[in-house]
């Protein structure tokens, strides 16, 4: 029970109040009872005693006649609330109306207050008899004559029952306040705990029930700031996990599909070659196998690079690269594929381009993807153009080489242009064309960014697309360092 947040919070509110009010109540009651009421009563009794003493000292017969003294005391007793005792200079009781008269006339009164009064000091004390209700405030006042000699003592005793009675309602009030305060603070603590525990509980249920494959519903971000931050962090984390899981599934489906299809074609071609005596057919099929293997190589290289980029930062080896020569070589590689599809592939880079610091293997991967897409999405009879030129410095940066791959394909809708660079994005508009896994462009852009450049697209639906790869021209020393 004490493990729950609610109980702990309620107690943490109630306990200090309980302790504080109880302590305060006790101190207050003590001050009232012992200091305020008792002091006042003692002062009052001492004043009464002093008045009595001033009368008694004027009457020497009284001191010699116990009966007369007794009579006088009884008369006085009717006017005051205290019990009275008259003691002579030797400490013997002369007369007394003292509670139940425990000291008869002639007995020695040896109470400390009497002894002190005989020495000339008017003092008081509380005589703790049996039980608090029986306690007596005992005041003794010396009676001295004009020469200063002490002839006796007037002793006044007052039951403390009166004080107890006066303090009782206060005591009750303290206990009621204590109870009410505790109940109120428990209630407050419980309400606060509830407001804290409810969102936490919701969060705990969401965490326990979370599976990245199930449709995810965000946890409401309510409650205190810290809980809200926690809920928002959980929501972000869950969304990311769902996204990652979706990517994983897409990747898996993509791999099975992308690798399975050409493998099936290769196997079928290989079987035909084995069983067919037709040499020309075998040569054709071998060329087909070669093409399929090239496709596979491209996919596998993309996948390998994706894995490398996700798991570890791949090392890029930078060296001076003649970009025009690199583009010519790339175009030569894709010439057959273009011809097969009756696409005119033009390659016209500016031959006077400066060398750039780049990782040629990675630039080839970018160009592979761009050219592969251009040929894939452009219908037969279309054109693919590769160009490269030096662009002036922009925003204070170094000059750039802009490599453009233009095609006369279907184009990309404006709202899709930003998404095609996301991993696993495949345009729904191109479903009729056999799309890939949706990682080529995303990887190509990552590689361009790693070179300190960028990759972007401009496109008009129905007319074609132009992908622009921007690469900075930097001196060798200022090239992007190896990762
Ligand atoms: P994929 O392997 O599916 O081609 P990419 O990352 O290379 O993956 O491309 C992402 C998406 O961008 C493609 O599915 C396609 O819809 C679109 N796309 C890429 N290149 C072109 C292009 N030259 N013309 C039209 N659409 C393109």
Under CATH, the topology of the domain at 315-478 can be stated as Heat Shock Protein 90
Task: Write down the overall mean pLDDT.
Answer: 85
Structural class: alpha+beta
| Percentage of β-strand residues | 15-25%
- Biggest sheet architecture: 5 strands, antiparallel
Question: What is the CATH H-level superfamily of the domain at 315-478?
Answer: Histidine kinase-like ATPase, C-terminal domain
| N- to C-terminal distance | 56 Å
Uncertain residue segments? 478-483
Specify the overall morphology: rod-shaped
Reading off the top of the CATH hierarchy, the class of the domain at 315-478 is best stated as Alpha Beta
Bound molecules: adenosine-5'-diphosphate
CATH architecture type of the domain at 315-478: 2-Layer Sandwich
Q: From the alpha-carbon coordinates, what is the Rg to the nearest angstrom?
A: 53 Å
Count of strand segments: 12
**Percentage of residues in helical conformation:** 40-55%
The number of helical elements comes to 11
The strand order across the widest sheet is 2-1-5-4-3
- N-to-C SSE string, H for helix and E for strand: HHHEEHEEEHHHEHEEHEEHHEE
Protein model, in words:
This protein has a five-stranded antiparallel β-sheet with strand order 2-1-5-4-3. The protein is of the alpha+beta class. α9 (360-377) runs antiparallel to α11 (440-450). Among the domains are: 5-166, 2-Layer Sandwich (Beta-Lactamase); 315-478, Heat Shock Protein 90, CATH 3.30.565.10. 54% of the residues lie in helices and 16% in strands.
């Amino acid at each position: 029970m004490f493990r729950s947040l609610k109980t702990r919070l309620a107690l943490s509110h109630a306990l200090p109040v309980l302790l504080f009010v109880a302590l305060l109540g006790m101190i207050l009651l003590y001050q009232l009872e012992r200091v305020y009421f008792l002091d006042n009563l003692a002062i009052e009794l001492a004043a009464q005693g002093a008045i009595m003493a001033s009368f008694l000292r004027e009457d020497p017969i009284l001191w010699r006649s116990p009966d007369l003294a007794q009579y006088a005391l009884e008369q006085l007793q009717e006017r005051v609330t205290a019990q009275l005792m008259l003691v002579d200079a030797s400490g013997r009781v002369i007369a007394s109306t003292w509670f139940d008269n425990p000291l008869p006339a002639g007995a020695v009164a040896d109470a400390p207050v009497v002894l002190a009064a005989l020495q000339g000091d008017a003092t008081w004390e509380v005589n703790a008899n049996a039980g608090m209700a029986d306690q007596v405030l005992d005041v003794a006042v010396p009676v001295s004559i004009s020469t200063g000699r002490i002839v006796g003592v007037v002793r006044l005793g007052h039951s403390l029952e009166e004080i107890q009675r006066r303090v009782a309602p206060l005591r009750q009030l303290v206990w009621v306040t204590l109870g009410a305060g505790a109940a109120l603070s428990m209630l407050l603590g419980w309400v606060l705990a509830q407001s804290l525990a409810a969102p936490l509980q919701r969060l705990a249920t969401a965490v326990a029930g979370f599976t990245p494959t199930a449709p995810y519903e965000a946890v409401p971000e309510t409650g205190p700031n810290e809980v809200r931050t926690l809920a928002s962090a959980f929501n972000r984390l869950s969304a990311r996990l769902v996204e990652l899981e979706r990517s994983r599934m897409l990747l898996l489906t993509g791999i099975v599909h992308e690798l399975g299809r050409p493998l099936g074609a290769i196997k079928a071609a290989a079987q035909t070659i084995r069983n067919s005596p037709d040499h020309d057919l075998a040569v054709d099929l071998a060329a087909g196998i070669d093409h399929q293997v090239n496709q596979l190589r491209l996919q596998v290289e993309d996948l390998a690079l994706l894995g490398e980029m996700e798991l570890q930062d791949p090392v890029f080896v930078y060296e001076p690269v003649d970009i025009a020569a690199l583009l010519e070589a790339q175009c030569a590689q894709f010439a057959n594929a273009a011809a097969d599809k009756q696409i005119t592939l033009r390659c016209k880079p500016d031959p006077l381009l400066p060398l750039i610091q780049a990782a040629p293997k990675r630039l080839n991967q970018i160009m592979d993807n761009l050219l592969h897409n251009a040929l894939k999405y452009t219908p037969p009879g279309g054109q693919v153009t590769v160009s490269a030129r030096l662009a002036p410095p922009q925003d204070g940066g170094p000059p750039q080489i802009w490599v453009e791959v233009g095609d006369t394909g279907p184009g990309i809708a404006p709202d899709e242009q930003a998404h095609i660079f996301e991993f696993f994005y495949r345009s729904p508009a191109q479903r009729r064309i056999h799309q890939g896994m949706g990682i080529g462009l995303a990887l190509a852009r990552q590689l361009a960014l790693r070179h300190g450049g960028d990759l972007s697209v401009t496109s008009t639906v129905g007319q074609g697309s132009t992908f622009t790869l921007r690469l900075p021209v930097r001196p060798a020393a200022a090239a992007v360092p190896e990762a």
